[in-house]
Amino acid sequence: MLSAKNNQTDELRRLEDELRAMKEQFEAFVNNSTVAFIVIDLTGHIVRVNDTFEHIFGWTADEAIGQQLPFVPDRLLPEFQQRLKTHSFTGTASEEIRLCKDGTLFTASETITPILDDSGQVTSYACILRNISDRKADERRLKVSEQRYKSLFENNPNAIYSVDLQGRFTELNPAVETITGYTPEELLYRDHTMLLLPEFKELSLLNHFAANPGTKQEVEATIVHKDGRLVDISVISLPIDVDGEMIGFFCIAKDITVQKQAEQLINHMAFTDCLTDLPNRRLFRNRLTESIETAEQNGDKLAVLFIDLDRFKVINDSLGHAFGDHVLQAVSERLQSCVTHEETLCRMGGDEFTLLMPNIQGAQDAIDMSKKIMEVIRRPLNVDGNEVHVTTSIGIALYPENGRDADTLMKNADIAMYRIKEHGKNNFQLYTDVMNEDAIQHLQLERELRKAIEREEFVLHYQPQVNVSTGQITGMEALVRWQHPERGLLSPIHFIPLAEETGLIVPIGEWVLKKACEDGQRWLQEGRKPMRMAVNLSLIQFQEQDLVEKIHQILVDTGLDPRYLELEITESIAMNNVEQVVAKLEQLVNLGVQISIDDFGTGFSSLSYLKKFPIHKLKIDRSFITDITSDPDDASIVSAIVAMANSLKLDLIVEGVETKDQQLYLHRLGCFEMQGYLFSRPLPAQMLEQLLQNWL
């Protein structure tokens, strides 16, 4: 009996030890868990918490036990308490907002399970709670990312699609239809190269990634739209890698058809003359360079022809630039009829064309072509209902005799062409090394003269005009000089003839007019006595259709009173188409400006002609003054001119007066206004200041 009782006691101790061990294990498990364990009584007071509770909420066990639901926000407290009263917690997990000690809120995964006694009555609740804020944030970011991708995928104007390792479409966005004409459903699981032109098949994704695994591909290709038209696309492709394994490709395709067309247009404009649609200077030079390289490799010859239309400026000036453009178009058509597809005809600009003749046998081929061109161009042109006659001057340079590079050949052909211009035009000329050096200098001077206009290298010198009876300065003749950067100050004799030949006299003359008016107005504003600013007009300037308008605008811009501007024209201008000259002079006089005849006595004017011209003054040419005190003929001519001027009631001025004897003699003949080195040489405006200071 005693033995049985001892056995029972030992069993009881063993059970108690096991129970204690299990309890310790449970406590350890609970306290080391990543979730908070909370025991709540039926009134909502905390009975027990584990160690993790403090880590999640911030309250220690001592602070929390006995508190009534401190972790439930106030706005949620009534609902929680109601559920306690009604025993509605059933152990189902839910997501709730819970409160930390520091007042922050977080999202928790919460499970509340009732604790029952032996009779099945609820005595308390066990709450298991996990902070899932990070998970919720990750889920939200993932959702936002998915939504963003979906939005970008579905609303992107570019075609976005995926391709599997067999090259089949696996996913396509709506923009695919816009670019290809096919719906995503029509293309799904079909080979992605089905849209490519045959010559672009080699650009397939499979080919690229087989040769360059794991790399990005960027290509431009042309596809066939569902309606049959061609569409240029730019495609970026990336491999889709999942856990280190490539499972397909992600692609973005953009329609660049308009861009490619714009590029082609820009390229066409960059290398094509817009008026004639011929290659321009840039393209010609490129082709010439390529032809030289080929000729050097093969031992071939080639020729460069510079083709210039003779007296084309006359057509432009007389019939207008629009008509001139039509003439150039007609000429380009004639020239194209002369050349083969192997040759390159180009418009260099203005009325200049060039022709590249590769693979020639020798100079005779270029000569024969020149004769052919001259014959074709010589035939009358019908332009806008008008018959036009045009001739050409052609310069020829041969490779390799006249140059081994593009610049040298073009320069020498140009020089040869200008040589023809100097010797009567309407012919051709082969370049030779012994060609007149003056022609080369002439060409170089023209280039420098064009640059001088752009760089404003011109200056004005002024020569006073003096009334010898009163001693007063009555005017200033404006004389242009060229401040050449290398040759120094050049007088008009070195560049005005070339300016007139090339038409550059027009912009130069316009600059002289404006500068002279600006200086005249400035001197007036500084308090100087009024004086006329005398400016020479060349024949080419005078023939400009808008001459009167230009002069009027200059007077308006500078503010100079028109009566202080004197325009000098030569007798040769006055006698060239008298009726037109009279009409233009009357327009100028109506502006209020003064008109004088320069170099009078050297031309062929007569009293009957002079009476027709609305002029104010005659300027006796210096050639009659040099020997006037010793040559009776010069004295008689000057006396006759004085008499003529008096009879026509015209003012008179004498130029080229260099000695006191000349001044006294001319004064006795009735000449009172003079200019020349006796009074002052031409001076720049700043050096005239002292001279003007003495005449206030």
Automatic annotation (TrEMBL):
Residues 90-144, 217-268 form the PAC domain. GO terms for biological process: regulation of DNA-templated transcription. SMART domains: EAL, GGDEF, PAC, PAS. SUPFAM superfamilies: EAL domain-like (SSF141868), Nucleotide cyclase (SSF55073), PYP-like sensor domain (PAS domain) (SSF55785). PROSITE patterns: EAL, GGDEF, PAC, PAS. Residues 442-696 form the EAL domain. Residues 300-433 form the GGDEF domain. Gene3D superfamilies: 3.30.70.270, EAL domain (3.20.20.450), PAS domain (3.30.450.20). Residues 22-79, 145-199 form the PAS domain. The keyword Glycosyltransferase does not apply. The keyword Hydrolase does not apply. Keywords: Coiled coil. Pfam families: EAL, GGDEF, PAS. InterPro entries: Biofilm_reg_signaling, Diguanyl_cyclase/Pdiesterase, EAL_dom, EAL_sf, GGDEF_dom, Nucleotide_cyclase, PAC, PAS. Residues 5-32 form a coiled coil. CDD domains: EAL, GGDEF, PAS. PANTHER family: BIOFILM ARCHITECTURE MAINTENANCE PROTEIN MBAA, DIGUANYLATE CYCLASE DGCP. This is Diguanylate cyclase.
